[in-house]
Amino acid sequence: MRLLASHLEPGDPVLVVGGAGIVVEVEARGWRVVRTAAERPRAVVQGFHPSVGWQELAEAAFALQAPSADGGIPWIATNGDWTIPVAGGIAPGNGTLVSAVHTAVGRLAEFAGKPERHMYDVATERFAAASPAMVGDRLDTDILGARRAGIRSIMVLTGVDRGASLIGADETMRPDHVIEDLRGLAEPIAPLRETFERSTGDTYFEVGTAAVRRSGIDITLVRAGARPVDTIRAACAAVWTADRAVLGLRISDELLAL
């Protein structure tokens, strides 16, 4: 809401796409919630709710027809998650719905939440955190946002992104730490051991009982760890410290199946 406040005056109408939570927050700030472009909103706020349908997306598009540079109204989206995990599998997230409106209007939304840093800055300020850290399960929102905000990031392997996507992650989305689940926050982190074998030119990366070898452009599994997270951490180290981009490496199928 801090972003929205920089654009609005008390009592201004705001077109809300999303659930009751956003409505409550908008009204609590003294703005008037509207649902159609005909009510001449001064801004559009787009958040996620499973009930959001075509009509709501269309009204947002109607209200956003003019580009912001040409006097169009502000468009604030809560987050850009492309997908969300639900009981039945992976479903479209808010980023997918925002993209639908973008396709119709040719404008980009300003994101208040992940992966932009606004939310991280507010949380750090609110709790006066001296050494904040982000714990998340998604590389392109949780971890990328933490990197942009300049705070530590901790990846858990219980959500959308798992071993293969983590091993091949872009530099901007690589976490500082990787743990199996939230229990790992209270457990010591197994050290990473790196050994260079001069006779072959190979480098070995070990975490716990897991071992991964980097030989030229080949990244292969030597020994699986007692815990999958140990093998993943060893593989990440082998890939992330290589002298070339991920696409220039040959990563074994065993590691990509993690």
UniProtKB/TrEMBL annotation:
Transmembrane segments: none annotated. It comes from Agrococcus baldri. GO terms for cellular component: cytoplasm. Pfam families: Hydrolase_like. It comes from the Bacteria. This is Haloacid dehalogenase. Gene3D superfamilies: HAD superfamily/HAD-like. GO terms for molecular function: phosphatase activity.
